[in-house]
Amino acid sequence: MTSTSHESAVPGCGKPSKSGLARVGFSTGFGVLAATLGSAVGLGNIWKFPYLTGANGGAGFLLVYVLATLLVGLPVMMAEISLGRVGKANPISTLQALAPKGQPWWLIGAAGMLGAFLILSFYSEVVAWVFAYVVKAMRGSILSSDPKVTEAAFGALISDPMQSLLWQWGVLVFIGGILLMGVTKGIEAITKRLMPILLLLLVLLCAVSLSLDKALDGLVFLFQPDFSKITASVVLTAMGLAFFKLSIGMGTMMTYGSYFRDDQNIPLTTVRVMAADLCISMLAGIAIFPAVFTFGFEPTAGPALVFITIPAVFSQIPMGQGLMVVFFVLASIAATGAMLSLMEVPVVILHERVGLSRPKATLLTIALLVVLGSASALSNSTLAEFKLFGLTPFDVADFVSSNIILPIGGIFIALFVGWAWGLDKFSQAMSNQGQLHNQQLIRAVFFLLRYVSPALILIVMLKGLKLF
Ligand code: PFF
Question: How far, in Å, from the CA of 338 to the mean position of ligand 1?
Answer without folding.
Answer: 6
